[in-house]
Amino acid sequence: MPRWDPEAKERLRAAALELFAERGYDNATVAQITERAGLTRRTFSRYFADKRDVLFAGSEQLPDAMADAVRRADPALPPFQALLAALVDAGDLFAGLVSHAAQRRAIIASSPELQERERTKLAAVTEAVVEALRERGANESSAKMLAQVGITVFHTAFERWAEHPEGADFAARVREAAAELAAHLTP
């Protein structure tokens, strides 16, 4: 067997998701994950800090990626429209996650610890977006409100996309959620 397995990370992720689904997140161990994947603890440690990291690996890049997308949006767009454009562009960030998205959401929903980590992740994204909106000219109060609403649109779109990935792509789900919000705001 080669010393480096190019599919090791995906094998570990798949094994972890299977075990989390079968036994519950709290009842699955790293040893069980590595055994199921046919790999070692050392290999696991190359890719993930702990078993939570299987679900959240890469999420630390999301705040900067979202803020950068807001900054790259057409300068002529008002702040909220720039944020929606950024959310549409964010679909590329999730292309590789579609196969695990619904399963990941269910596992997170089953664990208060994971729910807290998810909220922390979304709070970091929101703060980064607030700063990017301020750079686009929104005042602090407006930037906070727009970022929170935008992240809610993002979260709604992601949930819908995760549940039915064979339907519309992520960008279409963002547009759908934003249109739904606008329809509720129109008298």
TrEMBL record:
DNA-binding region per Swiss-Prot/TrEMBL record: 29-48
Keyword DNA-binding part of the UniProt annotation: yes
Domain of life: Bacteria
Domain HTH tetR-type: 6-66
Keywords: DNA-binding, Transcription, Transcription regulation
InterPro entries for this protein: DNA-bd_HTH_TetR-type_CS (IPR023772), Homeodomain-like_sf (IPR009057), HTH-type_TetR-like_transc_reg (IPR050109), HTH_TetR (IPR001647), MftR_C (IPR041347)
SUPFAM superfamilies: Homeodomain-like
Example GO molecular function: transcription cis-regulatory region binding
Pfam families: TetR_C_14, TetR_N
Protein name: TetR family transcriptional regulator
Record lineage: Bacteria, Bacillati, Actinomycetota, Actinomycetes, Pseudonocardiales
